[in-house]
From TrEMBL:
Organism: marine metagenome
Gene3D superfamilies for this protein: von Willebrand factor, type A domain
Start and end residues of each stretch annotated as Disordered: 169-207
Domain VWFA span(s) in chain numbering: 253-334
Protein name: VWFA domain-containing protein
InterPro entries (alphabetical): VWF_A, VWFA-rel_acidobac-type, vWFA_dom_sf
Regions of compositional bias (Acidic residues) in chain numbering: 169-180
Length: 387
């Protein structure tokens, strides 16, 4: 299975900051370094990181510090009718978020209600992008899963089908033990009321999230459903979001960090794709996801668990927003984390030939651990990947 690591833009003219070079078979990790005490973390070097893949120490082939690689970020914004009371605050907070990005950073703004998009690429100071945010209006339902799939697809320069296919192929290659360890295809939480696959039904004033049945193949169940997604974002005029030319290498000279910020205030009611489709695609991508929960999203246990699970699976972090007026502060927390992300790449030493792998060459789950030489700091990284 080819690793979906095409989230790097060509045309960067800066010189590499290290002597590292890499090929397209790299496993790419976004590793944030945080101080639990809240203090600033000084710049770190490659010697401060040790990467383990299935318990085996790896040789780092790509190391890019936060200051040396621009950011591609998808800002996925709930614009359903329930957001109407905080519509203006949400727009102002989104514009403030853009203003905190660096000039070389790129943003893909994707509003969603009962459908996802269309979205628009641009830079923080792009007047067209800022006008686009100013024109977002709240109406309709909530297609959260579809929006997450489209945001990931844009960042990976792939299609939603590609991401779901990777997750499906990986799931089919998992043993029962690996499936349980990775959590894929497993229902979580208490039994819930159902009204059809992956839908939400009203129960008094409280909508009830229905989980999909245990899955044996993501692709078989949702391959057709995700084809409707509109990936026809307006052509970029700023160099952001452009497809990669064939043969582009993941080197320090052209590396770009990636992240997805998801704002929502409620449960998914309208997606064609289900929660496990979104979770599988998030695992298949190399993109940290930062859900920002607003209002009802903080109060519903099932929805909160879903958002937290997506964040954990991708090496991101969920930010709970207590009041609409604090949304700007929530975005500030996300920006601070984004500024602490290092990009690390390695070729797993245990892969060997397909005949030598325990799964016979089929994708399997790999546990990933990152240790820091400085004990006062903590790494934030995805727990593993399929390969």
């Amino acid at each position: 299975m080819a690793l979906l690591c095409a989230g790097f833009a060509a045309g960067q003219e800066q010189e590499p900051q290290t002597g590292f070079t890499a090929d397209v078979n790299l496993v790419l990790l976004h590793v944030a370094v945080i101080d639990p005490r809240g203090s600033d973390v000084p710049p770190l070097s490659v010697e401060d990181f040790t990467v383990f893949d299935d318990g085996v120490k790896q040789t780092v082939e790509l190391f890019v510090a936060p200051a040396d690689a621009p950011l591609d970020v998808a800002l996925v914004l709930d614009s359903s009718a329930s957001m109407k009371p905080v519509e203006m605050l949400a727009r102002r907070a989104a514009l403030s978020f853009l203003g905190r990005l660096a000039p070389d950073d790129c943003a893909f703004v994707l509003p969603f209600s009962d459908t996802a998009g269309p979205g628009r690429w641009g830079r923080s100071a792009d007047p067209d992008l800022r006008m686009y945010i100013g024109g977002i209006r709240s109406q309709g339902g909530t297609a959260l899963h579809d929006a997450l799939l489209e945001g990931l697809a844009q960042l990976e320069r792939a299609s939603a089908n590609d991401l779901v296919a990777v997750a499906s192929e990986a799931e089919e290659g998992l043993t029962s033990e690996e499936r349980e360890e990775s959590g894929i295809g497993l229902d979580s939480g208490p039994p819930v009321q159902t009204s059809g696959p992956d839908k939400v039904v009203a129960s008094g004033d409280n909508p009830v999230i229905t989980l999909p049945p245990r899955r044996t193949s993501l692709l078989n169940e949702v391959g057709d459903a995700v084809r409707y997604l509109d990936l026809s974002a307006p052509p970029p005029i700023t160099g952001c979001g452009e497809p990669l030319p064939p043969g582009t290498l993941t080197t320090a000279a052209n590396a770009r960090r990636k992240a997805l910020v998801l704002l929502s205030d409620g449960a998914d009611m309208d997606s064609k794709a289900g929660f496990y489709d979104a979770l599988g695609a998030a695992r298949a991508a190399s993109v940290p996801v930062f859900p920002v929960a607003l209002g009802y999203a903080n109060d519903d246990p099932s929805l909160k668990d879903h958002l937290e699970e997506i964040a954990r699976a991708t090496g991101g972090r969920m930010v709970q927003n207590g009041k609409p007026g604090e949304l700007g502060e929530s975005y500030d927390q996300v920006v601070s984390l984004l500024r602490s992300y290092y990009l690390i790449g390695y070729s797993p030493d245990r892969l060997g030939s397909p005949e030598q792998t325990p799964s016979g060459g089929r994708p399997r789950w790999h546990d990933v651990t990152v240790a820091l030489r400085r004990p006062n700091f903590e790494p934030l990284v995805r727990p593993g990947y399929y390969r």
